[in-house]
Specification:
This protein is mainly alpha-helical. Helix content is 46%, strand content 0%. Helix 1 crosses helix 12, helix 2 runs antiparallel to helix 3 and helix 4 runs parallel beside helix 6.
């Protein structure tokens, strides 16, 4: 009987805390990148994981021992902690775009990988702390969630700000400051103290206004800017002063041209609402069926090991 051991990261066949049941495994499997080459032995794709599942089974059967699954199962896990089927950051960002793409998050998948590399690695399957491992755990839980409320909650925890679970927003902000805008603060303690005084009364992704969310947005843009001028500009927007961007909006109103109010004109008749466009054709479900078939095949492969 050959199977992926429980200590080899998060496996398809092992009901660890993250992998969950077979049904939950299928949900997470369907969220993986399914565009890899069928013979792929590396890269953050479903095909790479299938290759290592089958290689482990075949080697162990031929050798009549567990050498194959011990070697290859770590590559086949959701997180691929071994770094063969994608790095932890590649897997985090691929899952995040697929599962949490409709939520406020990293600017893009490529930006996510760049920013992710500045987080501490952490320990596989840890559920809190400003680390890659914590975010990867929660995005995988989001992938197998069976309710929208649960999905949204865990997507938030896996986000760039940590969702107050994978670190606080100030943990994320100050970590990114020293990674990408190191001249804004003298040390981490100064940054954390200053951040604690920022307003949090804004939404994630705010581009203006005196808030920590605005400053976090601009340090993320700085992290992914291609020119020195852009980096300097966005780093300045993210510092303690806000540099005329992350500041309280001006309330001054120019009244020099104000004359005596005239009689209000009659409101014009509202235009006729345009006819709603014809709904686009329903998308082809064949790709979803293909992924489900592949994921079912993976589970069947593991059944052969038992």
């Amino acid at each position: 009987m050959f199977y992926c051991p429980a200590d080899s990261a998060v496996q398809f066949a092992v009901p660890t805390e993250t992998a969950g049941s077979e049904d939950e495994c299928l949900l997470a499997c369907a969220a993986m990148d399914n565009t890899g080459d069928d013979s792929a032995m590396s890269g953050a794709s479903l095909q790479c994981r299938i290759y290592h599942v089958m290689a482990g089974v075949q080697i162990s059967i031929a050798a009549d021992d567990e050498s194959g699954v011990v070697e290859h199962c770590p590559h086949a896990g959701f997180s691929s902690d071994s770094g063969v089927c994608g790095s932890p950051c590649e897997n985090l960002c691929q899952f995040h775009e697929t599962v949490c793409g409709d939520q406020p998050n990293f600017l893009s998948q490529a930006d996510c990988v760049n920013v992710c590399d500045s987080f501490e690695a952490g320990v596989l399957d840890e559920t809190s702390g400003n680390t890659v491992a914590c975010r990867l755990y929660h995005v995988q839980v989001a992938a197998k969630s069976d309710t929208e409320e649960e999905r949204i909650a865990h997507c938030g925890h896996s986000n760039n700000d940590g969702g107050e679970v994978c670190g606080t927003i100030c943990d994320a902000y100050c970590g990114l400051q020293f990674a990408f805008c190191p001249d804004n603060f003298a040390n981490l303690a100064e940054c954390m103290q200053t951040c604690g005084n920022y307003s949090t009364n804004a939404t994630l992704g705010a581009t203006g206004g005196d808030s920590v969310q605005c400053r976090l947005y601009h340090v993320l843009v700085a992290a992914n800017s291609a020119t020195a001028d852009d980096i300097a500009a966005h780093c300045s927007h993210s510092d303690a002063t806000g540099s005329d961007v992350c500041v309280v909006p001006s309330t001054n109103v120019d009244t020099s041209d104000a004359g005596t109010d005239g009689t209000d004109g009659t409101d014009g008749t509202d235009g006729t609402d345009g006819t709603d466009g014809t709904d686009a054709s329903e998308p082809d479900d064949s790709s979803d069926f293909s992924v489900s078939l592949i994921c079912s095949f993976v589970l069947f492969a593991f059944a052969l090991m038992i």
